[in-house]
């Protein structure tokens, strides 16, 4: 097995890409969506106003001594690039390209004193995904084959979108709508949240499910009231209603929602121990780790095994091909998320455009992955990469 010769971290100036919140004005993803900052009126209208797009995209390359290059993209930008170049590279360079478990463990243990979650796990995730891509290319196999192979011929998708009604016409099995109003907007905002879901239910068929994306914006009493007012509208789950660390609140919310309405969270959780706490406290019915943030594919496999042992579903958050290669190999991941990146949510476009080439998208709400080695995507040469810490400290 070749050894890893170089590990490199880049930033990208182009809008979009892995930092998909970095969009021009007028995009639905930035239009008055409830957030933790919604308690402040001046930060309600735009998520970019409080800095959701400040990190930017991160590109990680891992080059083997035979010249083969694996890569991955995630968020983290220049701060994550610094961590990779100045700290994580020492555990990667010189190691056999197949030693993914040992490399991951060393990166995680070595960063415990300032890491564990957040930006550091973004950086570790990017390195880990690049190493999986490299290993697939060296073995001339797609990543899903390295994970044990597919358990179904194709995967189906729900859409996260401002227009679930349009998503139904595109063949998706359900639509998750980001809510616009949080508790600080009072009863009027609560009524508006309910009415938009009621309106969407009237526009879509009975077999098309709806879900609410709350993006950490609520508290237990408000989310409970919301759930009961949505009862009967075919809302399958309420997602990430509370701050990620409020395990006690999630457990209470799950007990308090109407029968049949599920709770989901995990988009901003990291590491198997964080998800273990969610599972043992019975906080959610569906876990939604982001493979680019939770610790990478090496850790997602462990998170999924824990969830499976607890009888819970794992439906990873976004992350395009990095999720698709995983979902197709797991029985407790029956469908995948697709984030509608068209500004008006009226067409299917690749999630990480323009950064990736050959990025697959569902057609008719379904996708069969090709057998291209690694994750099967290429970097767009028209996107200029910058390596801000090439002369790293040794």
Automatic annotation (TrEMBL):
Domain Mandelate racemase/muconate lactonizing enzyme C-terminal: 154-260
MF annotations from Gene Ontology: L-rhamnonate dehydratase activity; magnesium ion binding
Single GO BP term: carbohydrate catabolic process
SMART domains: MR_MLE
Keywords: Lyase, Magnesium, Metal-binding
Residues bound to substrate: 21, 47, 337
Marked site positions, Transition state stabilizer: 337
Catalysed reactions, as listed in the record: L-rhamnonate = 2-dehydro-3-deoxy-L-rhamnonate + H2O
Active site positions, chain numbering: 317
Residues reported in the UniProt entry to bind Mg(2+): 213, 239, 267
NCBIfam families: PRK15440.1 (NF011968)
Family: Belongs to the mandelate racemase/muconate lactonizing enzyme family. RhamD subfamily. Belongs to the mandelate racemase/muconate lactonizing enzyme family. GalD subfamily.
Note: Reaction proceeds via a syn dehydration.
Name under which the protein is recorded: L-rhamnonate dehydratase
Highest classification ranks of the organism: Bacteria, Bacillati, Actinomycetota, Actinomycetes, Kitasatosporales
């Amino acid at each position: 097995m070749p050894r890893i010769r170089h590990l490199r971290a880049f930033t990208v100036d182009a809008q979009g890409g892995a930092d998909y919140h970095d969009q021009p004005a007028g995009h639905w993803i930035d239009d008055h969506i409830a957030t933790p900052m919604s308690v402040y009126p001046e930060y309600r209208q735009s998520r970019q106003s409080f800095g959701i797009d400040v990190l930017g995209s991160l590109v990680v390359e891992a080059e083997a001594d035979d010249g083969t290059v694996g890569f991955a993209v995630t968020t983290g930008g220049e701060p994550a690039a610094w961590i990779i170049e100045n700290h994580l590279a020492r555990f990667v360079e010189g190691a056999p390209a197949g030693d993914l478990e040992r490399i991951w463990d060393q990166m995680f243990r070595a960063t415990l004193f300032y890491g564990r979650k957040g930006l550091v796990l973004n950086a570790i995730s990017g390195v880990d995904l690049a190493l999986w891509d490299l290993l697939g290319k060296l073995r001339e196999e797609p990543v899903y084959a390295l994970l044990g192979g597919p358990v179904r011929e194709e995967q189906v998708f729900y859409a996260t979108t401002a227009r679930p009604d349009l998503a139904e016409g595109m063949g998706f099995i359900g639509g998750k709508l980001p809510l616009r109003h949080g508790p600080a907007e009072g009863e009027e905002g609560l009524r508006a949240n309910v009415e938009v879901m009621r309106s969407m239910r009237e526009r879509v068929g009975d077999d098309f499910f709806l879900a609410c994306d709350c993006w950490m914006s609520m508290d237990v009493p408000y989310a409970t009231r919301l759930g009961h007012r949505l009862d009967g509208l075919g809302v399958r789950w309420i997602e990430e209603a509370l701050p990620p660390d409020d395990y006690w609140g999630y457990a209470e919310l799950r007990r308090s929602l109407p029968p049949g309405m599920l709770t989901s969270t995990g988009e901003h959780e990291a590491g198997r121990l964080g998800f273990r706490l969610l599972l043992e406290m019975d906080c959610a019915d569906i876990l939604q780790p982001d493979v680019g943030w939770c610790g990478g594919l090496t850790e997602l496999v462990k998170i999924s095994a824990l969830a499976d042992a607890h009888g819970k579903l794992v439906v990873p958050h976004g992350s395009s091909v990095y999720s698709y290669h995983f979902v197709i190999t797991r029985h407790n991941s029956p469908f995948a998320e697709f984030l509608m990146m068209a500004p008006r949510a009226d067409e299917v476009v690749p999630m990480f455009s323009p950064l990736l080439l050959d990025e697959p998208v569902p057609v008719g709400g379904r996708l069969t992955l090709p057998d291209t080695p690694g994750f099967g995507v290429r970097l767009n040469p028209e996107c200029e990469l910058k390596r801000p810490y090439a002369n790293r400290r040794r």
